[in-house]
Amino acid sequence: MRVLCAFPEAMASSSSRPPSCLALVALFLALLLHLSLSFHAGNRRPLPVDRATGLKEKTLILLDVSTKNPVRTVNENFLSLQLDPSIIHDGWLDFLSSKRLVTLARGLSPAFLRFGGKRTDFLQFQNLRNPAKSRGGPGPDYYLKNYEDDIVRSDVALDKQKGCKIAQHPDIMLELQREKAAQMHLVLLKEQYSNTYSNLILTARSLDKLYNFADCSGLHLIFALNALRRNPNNSWNSSSALSLLKYSASKKYNISWELGNEPNDYRSIHGRAVNGSQLGKDYIRLKSLLQPIRLYSRASLYGPNIGRPRKNVIALLDGFMKVAGSTVDAVTWQHCYIDGRVVKVMDFLKTRLLDTLSDQIRKIQKVVNTYTPGKKIWLEGVVTTSAGGTNNLSDSYAAGFLWLNTLGMLANQGIDVVIRHSFFDHGYNHLVDQNFNPLPDYWLSLLYKRLIGPKVLAVHVAGLQRKPRPGRVIRDKLRIYAHCTNHHNHNYVRGSITLFIINLHRSRKKIKLAGTLRDKLVHQYLLQPYGQEGLKSKSVQLNGQPLVMVDDGTLPELKPRPLRAGRTLVIPPVTMGFYVVKNVNALACRYR
């Protein structure tokens, strides 16, 4: 390197340096400074402007709905209910005539009521009015000896017309029953964990009570018969079922029928497997029993009520559809989301869990459409958590995200009916607790029934797209579904549309209604947890007001919050709600 100029170390001051060297040094330093600034500027990221620390940018989502034609039309009884036969075991069947319980069930009508579950295949019918007297000793409900005297005719006009038996049970009787049920709950759990079940006796009197509850509540009863009573050649032994059919016909009970519950589990619980072909023959046998009975010659028949569609279950369904696909009016299966023994509150917010149902639907549809294209498919016995559920989780506000998303997803994918396990039962997956108080999923179901009609509409959104990252699946934490508003709801004219929205984000989301929904008046029904427990709360509030039954035992009025026309919808974090867009005059919704 060539040195242009040098300075003696002993030089005392800059004034003694040559002027030409000073100018050169200054030029060199200026060049270095310029290069340094250019390098840093190229690697500098712009700082956020006018944004508070820790706040995410709010994305405006544009939302429109196709109003010309529905994409699906589901059953009028789309949201339906289930009662497990365990209510015979723990004594709650004797309290189905409770006025409060009937009122709660009526709120969810019209609907199907499926009487079935794990203990279906251990149920035996005996045409005895009171088995306790025939045995010469007290029965399981010995302290309810005055039960018949407590049943009174309701002063409701509808009850007088139908002859419904509505009871006002004394508090002491209810307290005794709760103590008994708590003890039996441990027995039932032990049976469930060990997969070994004891036999249950259904008497004529018990069947009368069950039908009285369904009929007075506006529910159509579906009775699942015992399929595990087998002949030596493994064919179905129909003797007990025939006795039940004849008794029901003599009482003129309007009932639809099923045979068995989760036949794919028969080997583990009974030691004897039943394949799909044999099960199909059993259904044909049941159909032949129904046809000579005038009342049931055209009764609906549903099945095979298989479990989660794994490989062996799909093989069973395939064999069944080959033999009896045309015999059943709808093909049924069950689904459970989470193992109730290990569930955590945040599990209910996982989008991956919410999406597990979609793949199962496609598997079932593929088999059904292979043999009977267009055959209706039902999801029966859907539960959020297995093993009877988990206290303070399965019965909490958090579980509602799974339930509401299930309703939206099933309707969108063409499932005709979904039956919730259970309306009232042991465990914690129910809609009503043992004090006859509605739980969060009940209020969610009530809003759905009041506001949502059977016609499903296509939703179009903009602003949700995010840049995908390699190796990461992006799932929607904001879920929006649209239906025509229930035409039985006289608060809204035909042509109105109801949206229901799930926001799993930890930040609020803004939605701007566009297209046919623009500048329309909106009624908001925002459901949030009530109390200090947050997502674990068993109480809810609607638009800031707690939801509780009225003192006289009736359901409260569900009051909406009107939003100004054209206003942006602001969806709070980790909440769900319904939004009725009024006077849209949607062509798809103007006619039934």
TrEMBL record:
Example of a GO biological process term: positive regulation of cell population proliferation
InterPro entries xrefs: GH (IPR017853), Glyco_hydro_79 (IPR005199)
SUPFAM superfamilies: (Trans)glycosidases
Residues in the signal sequence: 1-38
GO cellular component: extracellular matrix; extracellular space; membrane
GO molecular function term, any single one: hydrolase activity, acting on glycosyl bonds
Keyword match rRNA processing: no
The keyword Signal appears for this protein: yes
Keywords per UniProt: Signal
Transmembrane spans: none
Pfam families with a match to the protein in the record: Glyco_hydro_79n
Family of the protein in this entry: Belongs to the glycosyl hydrolase 79 family.
Protein name according to UniProt: Inactive heparanase-2 isoform X1
Organism: Mus caroli
